[in-house]
Specification:
heterodimer; A: about 250 residues; 6-stranded mixed β-sheet; 4-stranded antiparallel β-sheet; 10 strands; globular; disordered N terminus; B: 4-stranded antiparallel β-sheet; 3-stranded antiparallel β-sheet; 9 strands; extended
């Protein structure tokens, strides 16, 4: 209702307004979280575990439903019952902490599946697209490997290629490097940096402060379900906010 | 780790134990007052005796130059023409009475045990297909979001698993069979598929639930709807995991099919019972019947093992 009154701002791609999430067990995971994400912007969300940052990210493509508030993607209200949520999800990619590659398909098959089934691309087109994407993430020589034959870093890069195959408007990253061995974090972050430089809209939940400092346009700090602070990286990491100071003191 | 030599030793001990067991059975067979007549079984499996062709009415035999045999009946009916025969018993002009052997047909036929085996294979195979259909449908209902579907599936599984198959066969044949006018074979297939379907449904449910939640989330986050995610992501993985328990269930199905003999379907077990009364060789017959069941179940095991191997390419 409110959305039709406010003038549409085409710069804003994702708009979260006063999002509340209360789990059936009574846990109040998100408390009035509001956040605007502009086109081409990279927003990094940090915070202690249990702060609701992953839950918030998952509400952005409705893998998690919300209890109250609104989430708008390109001015389409995701909480509206008439919204085709599958069509919305096809436009918002998601990269998971545990990769979630399809183990019964090769790297190529993983990337091809959704374009063929959801976008109804022909097999040849999907294959060509998948090849290009795997080439882009540096896995040209691994296309026919099953996930079980790939390292964690390679799997996560396939997962990124799989999301990109849907030509999403935005990509959501849920702690993409947390399950990786330290020596593989770099290769995944490099792919993400490249995406950011190409203008992809990205929302990243991560513990990689270096990535936040280097790549983010804005850094968001969440704690106990609240959005505590939202700043540019320079000001963020020099902020005197006591709760942020306490958190950074623990992780750095 | 097992060493090579300890493995061979294991095989050797196994062979010794098996030899002792088998010779035990053999000597027990010798000791009892029983004359073994394995050769009596053959006609009941493959019958090589020539088959008599009988006259249907009284009449006169007529054999023309090219060897065509026909019986011209005494009272004006159409002649009985014998299309095919191997040995001629009657001669041209013979007086024939109804029931006389007029010619013989060589060659072999399947005996009752072979026919029973075929019925067992047929009924098991058809039931297997329907059981898988029912099992997948109810297994999917069991994990569906709608409470109605889940309740329906739970009711089906609990009712069928909680009652004996024998009782179900009687109910399907005498009650449902009467209501819908089913023949015994259809009733047998229905009872077996409904029974096995309940177990398959539980196996399918367990298989689906064993696939990590992240797989469904990944599929949905790519824009697939629930049905697409199930069909292209969840089920292919679930099926691989369900193959070993399914193999066990299918073997049970083949063995359970012996119960349909209670509604007079001449399957392998009923054929065995009939042959026992004809051949007076009960031990031989039951050993043979058991061996034939073993061949069918073993064959199925082999097929599923092959399938498992093929599906494990992604491991």
């Amino acid at each position: 209702m409110i959305d039709q009154l406010t003038p549409p701002d085409s710069k804003i791609l994702i708009k979260a307004k006063k999002v509340n999430k209360i789990f059936p067990n009574g846990c109040h995971a998100l408390k009035n979280v509001s956040l605007d994400i502009k086109r081409g912007e990279v927003v990094v969300i940090i915070g202690p575990s249990g702060s609701g940052k992953s839950t918030f990210l998952r509400t952005l493509n409705q893998l998690e439903s919300i209890s109250s508030g609104n989430i708008l993607l390109d001015q389409v209200d995701l909480t509206d019952k008439r919204t085709d949520i599958n069509a919305v999800r096809a436009e918002v990619g998601m990269v998971f902490q545990s990769f979630n590659l399809f183990p019964h398909k090769t790297a190529l098959g993983n990337v091809m599946l959704a374009p063929m089934k959801v976008l109804k691309q022909s097999k040849e087109d999907a294959k060509q697209g998948a090849r290009d994407l795997l080439y882009r993430v540096g896995l040209a020589d691994r296309m026919n490997n099953y996930p079980s034959r790939l390292s964690g870093g390679q799997q996560q890069r396939v997962a990124i290629a799989r999301s990109l195959a849907m030509k999403p408007k935005a990509l959501l990253f849920d702690e993409p490097t947390s399950a990786l061995d330290p020596e593989m974090v770099g290769e995944v972050l490099d792919v993400m940096k490249e995406l950011a430089s190409e203008g992809m809209t990205m929302v990243v939940v991560t513990h990689e402060m270096g990535f936040a400092r280097e790549v983010a346009d804005r850094v968001v700090f969440m704690e106990e379900g609240e959005l505590v602070l939202e700043e540019t990286p320079e000001r963020f990491f020099h902020s005197e906010h006591p709760r942020l100071q306490r958190f950074l003191g623990q992780v750095l | 780790m097992q060493t090579q030599s300890s493995r061979w030793l294991g095989h050797g001990v196994y062979l010794v134990i098996m030899a002792i067991l088998i010779s035990g059975v053999y000597f027990a067979g010798q000791k009892i007052d029983y004359t073994w007549h394995w050769e009596r079984l053959w006609p009941y499996i493959i019958n090589t005796e020539s088959q008599d062709i009988l006259a249907v009415t009284d009449g006169t035999a007529k054999v023309d130059n090219s060897g065509h045999l026909s019986i011209t009946p005494d009272y004006g009916d159409d002649p009985q023409i014998v299309e095919r025969y191997d040995t001629l018993v009657s001669r041209n002009g013979d007086l024939i009475f109804q029931g006389d052997t007029i010619a013989r047909l060589d060659g072999w036929r399947f005996g009752p045990i072979a026919e029973g085996l075929w019925v067992t294979i047929k009924i098991s195979f058809i039931s297997l297909i329907f059981a898988v259909l029912l099992g997948v449908i109810f297994g999917l209902m069991r994990v569906a979001h709608g409470q109605v579907w889940r309740n329906l599936a739970v009711t089906y599984v609990e009712v069928i698993r909680g009652t004996p198959l024998l009782v179900q066969i009687f109910i399907v044949y005498f009650f449902i069979g009467t209501v819908f006018d089913l023949d015994r074979f259809t009733a047998g297939v229905a009872a077996l598929s409904i029974f096995t379907g309940a177990y398959v449904a539980e196996i399918v449910r367990a298989g689906i639930q064993s696939v990590p939640v992240g797989q469904m989330e990944a599929a949905r986050s790519l824009g697939m709807n629930y049905v697409q995610a199930m069909a292209y992501v969840i089920m292919p993985q679930a099926i691989k995991r369900t193959l070993p328990p399914l193999a066990g269930q299918f073997i049970n199905l083949i063995k359970d099919s012996s119960l349909v003999s209670v509604i007079s379907i001449t399957d392998l077990t009923k054929a065995g019972r009939e042959v026992v009364s004809g051949s007076f060789a009960p031990f031989e017959v039951w050993f043979t019947v058991a061996a034939l069941y073993l061949v069918v179940t073993g064959g199925l095991s082999l097929v599923i093992q092959r399938l498992e191997k093929r599906l494990s390419a992604s491991d």
